[in-house]
Model the fold of this input.
Amino acid sequence: MDETALDREPDTRQVARELPPEQRPLAVFDALAERFARQDFRGCAFVNTMVEAADRSSAAHRVAAAHKAAVIDYLDQLLTDAGHGEHAALAEELVLLIDGAIVTSVREGTTEPARRARRIAAALLAAERA
Done:
């Protein structure tokens, strides 16, 4: 994830600095739960932009998609650093869980979607190691 994208995700940046590499992929979901608990949480501006600017060729959609690609790259690096062999595929799966947790949190108004997504992510990571 480039530094500009990291600047947009301060909770995720903290994950990278404070924990051992093997704990970082799941800690992303803990950071999401903290983000979901904030009074000003309104979902992901990039997901919201893609929904509003459904035209995939629009500039807004391209910027939002580039951000999501940067998030995938960041997750891929976390997974690589944690020693996961299938890091690229896992990064794609984790971002799907993250985006789903974000949307579900907006719908439910709770932090629980981050916890559910973390449990699913833990199962995926464990299965990859088995």
